[in-house]
Structure formats: structure tokens, C-alpha cells
Automatic annotation (TrEMBL), chain A:
Protein name (database record): Amino acid ABC transporter permease
GO CC terms, sorted: ATP-binding cassette (ABC) transporter complex
UniProt similarity note: Belongs to the binding-protein-dependent transport system permease family. HisMQ subfamily.
Top-level division of the source organism's lineage: Bacteria
Its membrane topology: Multi-pass membrane protein
Species this protein is from: Streptomyces spongiae
UniProtKB/TrEMBL annotation, chain B:
SMART domains xrefs: AAA
Taxonomic placement: Bacteria, Bacillati, Actinomycetota, Actinomycetes, Kitasatosporales
Domain ABC transporter: residue ranges: 15-249
Major location category of this protein: membrane
Protein name as annotated: Amino acid ABC transporter ATP-binding protein
Family classification: Belongs to the ABC transporter superfamily.
This protein's record includes keyword Electron transport: no
Length: 304, 258
């Protein structure tokens, strides 16, 4: 055994590259020319991109501004005065959207995971659980969210059940959670199925039970792999929280709605829309960053 | 060698297979396979790819369900549907061709998972034992690394440590050097040699004929799912009785592998 110890010192993969050693390296003329050419090409590409963007922008501007209805449109959708009036109220309403996102997001992740696990349970005992979970995802992925919202937000209070809330925020959040859990469950399930069977075989061969193998080996890898699509669904949830306004909850959309109803000017909608975009941009950028990082790791031969 | 042959007949076997049959759809992968593995002996399964070596090992560990026949581990029939499969697997260690380390865990976590979760060993104790085994296999400084930072030979040695950490009764090695670069094969085979010296009972499927000849007490040549020839390494490699065995070994020699 002692002989092996010496060997392992040599086969350490993190050894230094030869670039660190030859300090006397002087770039050849060939390399200098090649790099000068590459820089010139990059400058040309940047110049073309700038001109192309400018031309596209000008054309779009001219088309919009010269449209026959532009003066009216400008007045009803882009009125600076109404924008200033709407902004603080929309922002106040947005706080409700943010809270909804946080609570529903957490609930969706938990419920989605439970449904995904239910769908992968083996054995005849769990047949009804599997069937129910499958029916749930089929139903709520197919049902348009807006119809789901109307049924829950308007239908549940109509039942006049004792002790059941009629709060449009709670009911709206419930509807969002129902629909998004179905999507997220499918994301988790795809993740579980993407873990190679040999991982489960290795876990089982160590004597882990099916449950232990799922908990310690399969799920951690499945969740890690599915982070980009999960974040994508959360971005989508973030903007769909705006739909709870149909039940009368005063969120950013509803706040804009109130002003529109009073003034008959649509500028507040534009403000609300831009506020949502501004809210989702950090999240989408974060998603892109995580995805790129994981792709990079995979390209290096690592497993995410 | 004659001594171990004697042991084969006198001591109760660790693993015994009788008339095992395994099919995948229409393909018959194992046909009427008998096998006995005596304690503290090494059995080498040789044969072409697709001859059934890996399937035989997977059946022994209940990763595949057999169609007919029976398998015993220490006098307990493990193919009895009432047998506790998890309990059986706890007593058998497996090392796979593709290592199958858990990529999201460090080396130490890979090794201590089963002792802690399955055998209820306290964390500190499990880690001490893991470090001791890693040290023995020349991997003392790799405990905190993730598998993708290790070379293939190091990963395979970690996989061996992981299998040993639960103190198995029997170790199954499924072509454990087949995925390795040639220069890394030696470090893994050295570990197997040392395990043999420690008295570990092992069954290994292998393409390393020289190694099989050197360490195996019993060699089985599989062909088309049948154990066509068996005996000591001397008998099977030195004086094969079957024409197919001779042809297989000739091909191996021609390829410079023996």
C-alpha cells in the first residue's frame, strides 16, 4: 500500500502548465500580426453593429411617429403627467405582487416537489397517488390561468362556506399556486428522470432504501440541474401575480386600473407594465448567469 | 493454488448460484449458470463483451431480478421474494465500470453516506474509518475533493473505498479498469491485489487476462450466457478444454493482452 501513496503525488490533475515556466518567451511577429488582425476585425464588427442598431431605431421611430393615429395614441398612452401621478400608487401596489411572489414561490416549490415525488413512487400501493398526481398536472397545466383565477377568486366566495376566506389576495394566491405547482412538478420530474439510473443503482447497491436513494442521491442532483428552468418559472410567476387584480386585490395592475377608470387615460398601464419589466429583469439576468455558469461547468467535464 | 481448491470444496460458500436464468425480452443473457464462491477466494469471470459477466454480477446483487434458479448468500436464499433486498445489498459491495460516484458529494461524503444512513454509524466514527481507508489506498489528501476533480484511477479507488466502508461480506467488481487510461490501470489493480491479501472474497468481471490469471483462485469462462469452462487459472489459461475458450484466448493473445 505504501507504494501507492507515492504514485498519487504524481497523478495530481492540478499540475502547472508549461506557460508558467518559460519566462523568456517573446511573442513572434506572426502572433503579433495575427492579434492585430483580430483586433481590427473586432473594431469593424462593433462599428457595423452600432450603425445597424441606429438605422433600425430610426426606422422604427419614424414608422411609429408617422402612423396616422400617433398623436391620439401619444396622448392616451404616453402622458407624462398621468405617469407621474400613477407611479407612486403603482409602486405601492407592486409591494403586494412582491409579497405574493415570495409566498406563492415558496408554496409552489414545496407543492411541486411533493407532486413530482408522488409521480415517481414505485409499487402498486401508490397507484392512486401516482394517478392523482398525474391527473393534477394534466388538469392544471391545461387550464388557462385566468379561468382558474376566476373560478377560485369568484367561485369560492359564492359558495358562502363558513370559515373559508373571501380575501381576493389569498384566493388569487391559491389559484396561482395551483397552476404553477403543476408546471414546477413537471420540471422536478424531468430532473428526477434525468439523473442516470446508474446513480440509483450505486445507491441501492450500498444498501440505501429506495427512499434514501431518492433523498440523498437523486433529488439533490435533480434540483441542481433544474435550477435554470425553475428560475424561469419563477420569473413567469412574478409577472402573473398581476392577474390577481381581476378579483379586486389592489396590486400594481389594479392601482393603474383605478387611475385609468377615473381619467380614461391608459398611461398608468404603461407605467405598471414597465415596473413589472424592471422587476423581472434582475431575475432573468440571474437566471441567465446561473445557466451560463452551469453550462460552463458541464463543458469542463464536471457534473452540475 | 491446490490449497484454495481444497478450500473451495470444504468451506461453505459465500455466494452460490444454481441454474440461474436471466432474459431481457427475447435475449437469453444467462442460461443455467452455476457458481460457487468460497470465502477468501477470488473468482474471475472472463469472456467476450455481451457474454453475461456483468449481468451475472448485477443478479448477484439483486440489481436485476433472475427468471429462474436461485442465489444464496451465506446459506440465505436471497432470490426468495420474501428476502429483504436492502439487507442483502448491505452485505455486498459493488464497484462499477463507470465508478458511479455521487457527483454532488465530496469524496468523504460519498464514502460515509452508507455507513451513516444505512448502518447508523456516528458521523465522526464513519469519517475516521473513511480517512483510514483513503490513507491506505493513497488518497489521504483527497477527502474534501469532488469526484470531477480526480483522475479516473483516483475515482475508481474512491469507489472501492466506498464499497469497503460498509465492511461487505463479498465484493463484486464489474470491469473496474475498463474505463481507465492504460497508465491508470495499475494503481487500481494494486488495490485489488492488496484486498486479496487481506482475505476479501471477490468476484470480478474483467478483460485484464494477465491480472485474472495472477489473482484468481477460480476462473469462469462465459460464452453466450453459459459458463463454458471453469477451473483454476492454470487450468483455464494453461490448458483450456473447450474449443471456444481456446479461440477466445488466442484472440486475446493476438491482441497483446495476455
Amino acid at each position: 500500500m505504501t507504494s501507492l501513496k507515492e504514485e498519487s503525488a504524481q497523478d495530481d490533475p492540478g499540475d502547472t502548465r508549461d506557460g508558467d515556466r518559460d519566462d523568456a518567451y517573446v511573442p513572434s511577429q506572426r502572433r503579433i500580426d495575427r492579434e492585430a488582425h483580430k483586433r481590427a476585425r473586432a473594431r469593424r464588427a462593433a462599428a457595423i453593429a452600432a450603425v445597424s442598431t441606429l438605422v433600425t431605431g430610426v426606422v422604427l421611430y419614424l414608422v411609429v411617429v408617422n402612423a396616422p393615429g400617433w398623436p391620439r395614441t401619444k396622448e392616451t398612452f404616453f402622458d407624462w403627467g398621468y405617469a407621474r401621478e400613477a407611479f407612486p400608487q403603482v409602486l405601492e401596489g407592486l409591494w403586494l405582487n412582491v409579497r405574493l411572489l415570495l409566498v406563492c414561490g415558496a408554496a409552489v416549490l414545496v407543492l411541486g416537489m411533493l407532486i413530482a415525488i408522488a409521480r415517481t413512487l414505485p409499487g402498486p400501493v401508490f397507484f392512486p397517488v401516482r394517478a392523482l398526481a398525474a391527473a393534477y398536472t394534466d388538469f392544471f397545466r391545461g387550464l388557462p390561468l385566468i379561468i382558474n383565477l376566476m373560478i377560485v377568486v369568484l367561485g369560492v366566495p359564492a359558495l358562502r362556506l363558513q370559515g373559508v376566506t373571501v380575501d381576493p389576495v389569498l384566493l388569487g394566491g391559491t389559484a396561482l399556486t395551483l397552476t404553477y405547482s403543476a408546471y414546477v412538478a413537471e420540471v422536478f420530474r424531468a430532473g428526477i428522470e434525468s439523473v442516470h439510473p446508474s446513480q440509483r443503482a450505486a445507491a441501492r447497491s450500498l444498501g440505501l432504501t429506495n427512499r434514501q436513494a431518492l433523498r440523498h442521491v437523486v433529488l439533490p442532483q435533480a434540483v441542481r440541474r433544474q435550477v435554470p428552468p425553475l428560475l424561469n418559472d419563477l420569473v413567469s410567476l412574478q409577472k402573473d401575480t398581476g392577474l390577481v387584480s381581476i378579483g379586486g386585490a389592489v396590486d400594481a395592475v389594479r392601482a393603474a386600473d383605478i387611475i385609468v377608470g377615473r381619467s380614461l387615460n391608459y398611461t398608468p398601464y404603461i407605467v405598471a407594465g414597465l415596473v413589472f419589466v424592471a422587476l423581472t429583469i434582475p431575475m432573468t439576468r440571474f437566471t441567465d448567469w446561473v445557466t451560463a455558469r452551469m453550462d460552463r461547468r458541464r463543458a469542463q467535464g464536471g457534473t452540475p | 493454488m491446490s490449497e484454495s481448491q481444497e478450500q473451495l470444496s470444504t468451506r461453505p460458500p459465500v455466494l452460490r448460484m444454481e441454474s440461474v436464468r436471466k432474459t431481457f425480452g427475447d435475449a437469453v443473457v444467462l442460461r443455467n449458470v452455476d457458481l460457487e464462491v468460497a470465502p477468501h477466494t477470488v473468482t474471475a469471470l472472463i469472456g467476450a463483451s455481451g457474454s453475461g459477466k456483468s449481468t451475472l454480477l448485477r443478479c448477484a446483487n439483486l440489481l436485476e431480478e433472475i427468471d429462474d434458479g436461485a442465489i444464496w448468500l451465506d446459506d440465505e436464499e436471497i432470490t426468495d421474494p420474501r428476502a429483504n433486498q436492502d439487507a442483502v445489498r448491505r452485505r455486498i459491495g459493488v464497484v462499477f465500470q463507470a465508478y458511479n460516484l455521487f457527483p454532488h458529494m465530496t469524496v468523504l461524503e460519498n464514502i460515509t453516506l452508507a455507513p451513516r444512513r444505512v448502518h447508523g454509524v456516528a458521523r465522526a466514527e464513519a469519517e475516521d474509518r473513511a480517512r483510514e481507508l483513503l490513507e491506505r489506498l493513497g488518497l489521504g489528501d483527497k477527502a474534501g475533493e469532488y469526484p470531477d476533480r480526480l483522475s479516473g484511477g483516483q475515482q475508481q479507488r474512491v469507489a472501492i473505498v466506498r464499497a469497503l466502508a460498509v465492511r461487505p461480506r463479498l465484493l463484486l467488481l464489474d470491469e473496474i479498469t475498463a474505463a481507465l487510461d492504460p497508465e491508470l490501470v495499475g494503481e487500481v489493480l494494486t488495490v485489488v491485489r492488496d484486498l486479496k491479501d487481506d482475505g476479501m472474497t471477490m468476484v470480478l468481471a474483467t478483460h485484464e487476462m494477465g491480472f485474472a490469471r495472477e489473482v484468481a483462485d477460480q476462473v469462469c469462462f462465459l460464452d453466450g450466457g453459459v459458463v463454458l469452462e471453469r477451473g483454476t487459472a492454470e487450468q483455464v489459461f494453461g490448458d483450456p478444454q473447450q474449443e471456444r475458450t481456446r479461440r477466445f484466448l488466442r484472440r486475446i493473445v493476438d491482441a497483446g493482452r495476455l
